[in-house]
Amino acid sequence: MSERLTAELATEVCANCGADRQGHYCHDCGQRFVEGRLSLGTLWNEVVAPVFNFERGVPRTLRDSLWAPGKVIRRYLEGQRRRYANPFSYLMIGVAVALLVSSLVRNDEVLASQIREASGGGLTRFLSPEQIDTFIDLQVRFSRQASVHLVILCLPFAALLRLFFRGGAIAFAEALVFALFAFGTAYFLSLPTSLVFALSGSLKLEATLTILILALVIATAAWQFFDGRWWAAAKAVFAFAIAYFTFSSIMAASMLFYVLRFSP
User: Fold this and answer.
1) What are residue 32's DSSP bridge partners?
2) Which of 195, 199, 224 shows the shortest CA–CA distance to 210?
């Protein structure tokens, strides 16, 4: 029986690349051998599960990152890449969940009222009432999609990490992995801040808590990644602060320029 099975396996070829079959996966292109017609189980295993890493990555990565984010990053860089989720996928899932929760609790009218109150009367000095409405509308849209926009911070943050840790301590690619994992974990941890907004109606409080969670995750990850050195945590938080301040300033200036240039 085993000899016949071996003979059958040896004669089969991969439908994708034509290589001879050896085992359950093609040794040439990596495609899994599937018997018979496409089923729902096969569709889940080959299409849905790999995208979200349900079978191996995200739950384990999140669980370990809650207690040791820096160690997870270190293990991933040292080669345990099948054990943990792809850092980009991990971040994108965190963003998707954050957007879903935010869409359920956010109210655009409350957001606009909060932003108008925070801006005070400063805008009336150089903007017309129509321009102020446009500016506030842009801020509401930005706030609604803040989780997506903050992903952009990963690149400047990684570049600053590389700059601050000289002497080969961390390469840019490694710094980018650090940023993706740290931001991904922070997104999951900051989900309750949406409930803070829903209960208190304070956009400022929600934003402050989110930034504090990001800074805390980054500090903890850097402290663990660099073997318990406090100065490493301080450098990482400083790099994040510069990246965040620069990003916020550019976004505010861009919205203001758009209003002045295109709004009546």
Assistant:
1) 25
2) 195
Q: What is the pLDDT of residue 32?
A: 67
Residue 131 within a domain: yes
How far is residue 157's CA from residue 166's CA, in Å, rounded to a whole number? 15
Residues 131 and 249 in one domain: yes
Both 113 and 228 in a single domain? yes
Phi-psi region of 23 (alpha: psi -120 to 50; beta: other; left: phi over 0): left
- Regarding whether 253 and 139 lie in a shared domain, the answer is yes
Q: Do 122 and 190 belong to one domain?
A: yes
Tokens describing residue 191: 């989900």
Structural domain that includes position 27: 2-33
Residue at 107: amino acid letter: N
The answer to whether 223 and 70 are in contact (CB under 8 A) is yes
Q: How many domains does the chain have?
A: 2
**45-81 pLDDT, tens digit each:** 555 555 555 545 788 899 999 999 999 999 999 988 8
Does position 192 have pLDDT exceeding 50, yes or no?
Answer: yes
